Amino acid sequence: MDENLKREIMLENYMHPFNKEQVNDDSYIKVNTNNESCIDNIDLYLKVEENKIVDLKFMGEACAISTSSTSIMIHNLIGKTVEEAYEYIDNFENMVEEKEYDSDLLNEGIVYNEIYKQNNRKHCALLPYVGIKKALKEYIDKK
Amino acid sequence: MNREDFPMLKQDIIYFDNGATTLKPYCVIEKTTDYYENYSANAHRGDYDISYKVDMEYENTRDLVKKFINAKEKEEVIFTSGATDSLNKIIFGFFGEYLESGDEVILTISEHASNVIPWFKLVSDLGIVVKYIPLDDNLYVTLDNLKKVVTDKTKVISLAHITNVVGDVRPIKEICKYAHELDIFVVVDGAQSVPHMKIDVQDLDCDFLAFSAHKMLGPTGVGVLYGKKELLDELKPTVYGGGMNESFDSPTEVYLKELPARLEAGTPNIAGVIAFGEAIKYLNNIGMDNVLHHEQHLRKYLIDKLIKIPHIDIINLESDSGIVAFNVDGIFSQDVAYYLNKYNICVRAGSHCAKNLKKGVGVTNTCRVSLYIYNTEEEIDNLVELLKDKDKILKEML
Fold this sequence. Notes:
The structure holds two protein chains of two kinds.
Chain A: H1 3-15, E1 29-34, E2 41-49, E3 52-61, H2 64-77, H3 82-96, H4 119-142
Antiparallel strand pairs in A: 1-2, 2-3
Chain B: E1 14-15, H1 26-38, H2 49-69, E2 77-80, H3 83-98, E3 104-107, H4 117-126, E4 129-132, H5 143-149, E5 154-160, H6 172-181, E6 185-189, H7 201-204, E7 208-212, E8 223-227, H8 229-232, E9 245-248, E10 254-256, H9 270-286, H10 288-306, E11 312-314, E12 323-328, H11 333-341, E13 345-346, E14 348-350, H12 357-361, E15 366-370, H13 377-388, H14 390-396
Parallel strand pairs in B: 1-13, 3-4, 3-5, 5-6, 6-7
Antiparallel strand pairs in B: 2-8, 7-8, 9-10, 11-12, 12-15, 14-15
């Protein structure tokens, strides 16, 4: 994908993130995810019904990479089963960590396929994935 | 000034993160190497020549620190691993023994984590109560606002001389005078003040002072705990072991050394302490008034330029130190820092370890420029030029 197009997609998701809103509803699993440099800080709200992600929202303050990555992740996970979600997550993480992955599965998540070139920003792209794994684990443990 | 003395400045970088740590001049680096190459023995042994030299050099730094902060006695200067370590020793070794349930300690919401979390630990361990001085509109501490939170249960006021986010200089002398009339102790976190201005602990009359060597051209891993002699005598060691005991024949027969050895258990950071002495000599040669003047001049120079940029929001317009906190409208501070990094400009983004301040300023994160002796107007021109064009920031921050 063209460099400029990637930047545009990230910027669009940063300036107008998808599903960024506070949730006060007990039917959602709420998890916090923040990075070591003590600055990005995101709450994720996950709602799973019959093994399917029916809603996912977020709130918080984070950099352009973290925010856009969260927005894109949410866009892609809603409607997926828990197993499909894990498949997406694994693929995304493998891409960032320069391992083998299936690019067809990632949709616009692919815009971070060169983030490994900026080592200090990898954790930004991965931040929402740390959170969603926590939330999914909570769902599975409750079941 | 003195840029040729700093090897790091040979690289193509602009270093604006002096509140985090400072660059080291050749004399400090060479003094460290000299110890490891030429007289690398332990301290307090003295039986052979090189060991004797270690003791002389180590104690010479203590003397330099004593004069630098105008302590009354050499024994009032204790070497630690840094300001955090100093504060922990003061809070747990002295106040952990002295305070009782219900006693009140007064802090501010803009304190660094190391002057907050140890007190929180005493809240859970002893049941003390933490209170905060309300900050005024400029986020300053005033004596009047302090008086509003003092009660007959207040035992100690613990605050930074200069805060690391807002850079305001607190009226420590007035606070000490007022506090001592009510038999309240004053602990000063000097991490951001001692490196930048002349400090006279006798004039301030503070009871304890903590600061770090690495924020004033010295090595990492060295700090100072200053305390009035009569209080340090009461401070219980938090670390026990070699170098601090007279004898230990049985659990009931442990006899400790006098100050300062009693509070410096184990082999200290010898190379670091000795090299710290060079940093103090270096600063003395420049003169601390000149250090402060240079920073204030540069700060004004920076503010005058930033204020003309409409998309820049300056958090601390007024400040007597060399700290400028700002945000670019609509752009997360970390993205601004990443953008500047592409041009080899080092600024800090975040909450600067003062997470409580969120509640106070209403701004969670900021970019921080903290200046020091080697920064120049030209460097500031470069920074301002890069911040002028918001579209450029948006385009290049990713």
